[in-house]
Design a protein that fits this description.
Layout lengths: L11 H8 L2 H31 L3 H38 L3 H36 L4 H16 L1 H16 L4 H23 L9 H23 L17 H32 L4 H37 L3 H28 L1 H5 L6 H14 L3 H17 L3 H24 L3 H24 L13 H8 L4
Helix pairs in contact: 2-7, 2-10, 3-4, 3-5, 3-6, 3-9, 3-10, 3-14, 4-5, 4-6, 5-8, 6-8, 7-8, 9-15, 10-11, 10-13, 10-14, 11-13, 11-14, 13-16, 14-16, 15-16
């Protein structure tokens, strides 16, 4: 057993996670992550704008590829990335520095493996998938050009996100923020230069956007590798002579695979809702889609607190500080609920302030306003469920958060189908989506409050009973 460490043995970043004031630490570490997520979202919007200048077929082609790219991003950065950050944080918290160093190689190998799987799956199955999603003719050909370029470099995307997660797991959020934001600034002019041609650069058309994206991830990966090899890095990874150990793979995959199921369930829930709303016509789809974009923008805000929570909870759990891990979780949850609920209430009170940014069609505005007035006041439950999902990644206990997301999927799908079958109208379909968010938040909150991280869930879970689970014999 590793002997207890003194305060002098602890790296300042690890000590901050174990001893620093929780709310200020979360806010300080969370700010770079929010900036990162909005930078990435801004890059996507800029690229879409420039590709749209090539015509409707090019825009339609990229549109059908986009959900598949987003699924890969969610799995590599959020799901498996969360597993990597959690494993690193727990190892550092337990003073297992050698394991933390070895985890870097294991994380890179996992990323390369999943990158190859995504590459082969989409290169060989992309055409059939995009055709099922409605692409045909010139739009399908445009989709294939863009998709083949992007997924030929899938390994680069996975490796970049894995290395960023490794650094996040040490409690350092600033490095990846700097790399991503500087890269985004460079990508904005590079993308149109490759799409339309500029100076010695040839006009590559839609493929230019994909090539610019891959260059961004390639250079970013090299920068992150350079940081890990520098004296500034808390970790000292070795790429040769490190024995591969199943327990280290399991530490990552045990969290990452469960989180991947949750990410898939989220995307399926949105897809089902879109299909249900589609029964009421294209204006209803446009209204729902425009309103739901606001829900997507809540994710980077919650991730701002979720990413440092993964590091803080994982480090505290590894160090045996279970009470502090729970206290940090509920403080993070309170911050996330306050922000998401404020945004949701504002959207419900003034829906046209958001919807008007995307169109003026009266039918679209009516449908979108109905969605925001119904679901917006319940966004706090979405923020609650999502931030507790991140905290559970840090604890290495994702069973109940995955169940909560599946329950959300079931309520949204079955409730929406019931509304259609009974002829209750579009408002009832939106009510089902709101109820699904409530279920998602409550399942996560009640199970964690019931002791899910430290044993079987049981209610009523009094403070004394929870403390007994946290520290048996105390």
């Amino acid at each position: 057993m590793t002997p207890p460490a003194t305060r002098a043995d602890l790296d300042p970043r690890t000590r901050r996670l174990l001893e620093g004031p929780i709310a200020p630490t979360l806010l300080r570490l969370g700010a770079p992550n929010v900036l990162v997520m909005f930078a990435q979202a801004g890059v996507g919007l800029v690229e879409t704008y420039f590709i749209g200048q090539l015509g409707t077929d090019a825009l339609a082609g990229v549109s059908v590829v986009f959900p598949v790219v987003m699924l890969m991003q969610m799995m590599s950065a959020g799901a498996m990335g969360g597993g990597i950050a959690s494993a690193i944080a727990r190892a550092l918290g337990a003073r297992r520095r050698d394991d933390a160093n070895a985890l870097v190689l294991h994380a890179a190998l996992i990323a390369i493996g999943f990158g190859i799987v995504f590459m082969l799956a989409v290169l060989f199955g992309g055409r059939a998938l995009y055709a099922q999603m409605g692409a045909s003719g010139a739009a399908l050909e445009a989709a294939m050009v863009y998709s083949n370029w992007v997924f030929a470099g899938a390994v680069l995307i996975w490796l970049f996100n894995a290395l960023a997660a490794v650094i996040r797991g040490t409690g350092n959020m600033a490095v990846q923020a700097a790399v991503i934001c500087i890269g985004a600034l460079l990508l904005v002019p590079l993308s149109p230069a490759l799409i339309f041609g500029w100076g010695p650069l040839p006009a590559m058309g839609i493929a230019g956007g994909a090539v610019a994206l891959l260059l961004y991830y390639a250079v970013g990966s090299l920068v992150l590798l350079g940081y890990l090899a520098s004296s500034r890095s808390l970790l000292r990874p070795s790429w040769r002579g490190v024995p591969l150990r199943w327990p280290l793979f399991r530490a990552i995959l045990g969290v990452g695979l469960a989180a991947a199921v949750s990410a898939a369930a989220t995307n399926i829930a949105i897809g089902i809702a879109t299909a249900l709303v589609g029964r009421f016509g294209p204006a209803a789809i446009a209204g729902y889609g425009t309103g739901a974009r606001l829900e997507y923008l809540l994710v980077p805000l919650v991730f701002g607190f979720g990413a440092p929570l993964v590091a803080m909870v994982g480090t505290c759990i590894g160090a045996g500080q279970r009470e502090r891990a729970l206290r940090a979780t509920w403080i993070g949850a309170g911050l996330a609920v306050a922000i998401t609920e404020t945004i949701g209430l504002a959207a419900a009170l003034w829906p046209h302030a958001w919807l008007g940014l995307f169109g003026t069609d009266p039918a679209m505005l009516e449908a979108g306003a109905a969605y925001l007035r119904t679901v917006g006041p319940l966004y706090g439950f979405f923020g609650l469920g999502l931030v507790l999902y991140f905290a559970s990644q840090g604890a290495g206990r994702l069973g109940w958060p995955v169940a909560g997301n599946i329950a959300r999927l079931a309520v949204a799908g079955l409730g929406g189908l019931l509304a259609l079958h009974q002829g209750w109208g579009l408002a009832a379909v939106f009510a089902a989506q709101g109820a699904a968010l409530v279920v998602y938040g409550l399942v996560n909150a009640l199970t964690i409050a019931g002791g899910a991280w430290f044993g079987r869930v049981g209610w009523p879970c009094t403070p004394a009973r929870l403390m007994q689970r946290i520290a048996p014999g105390a």
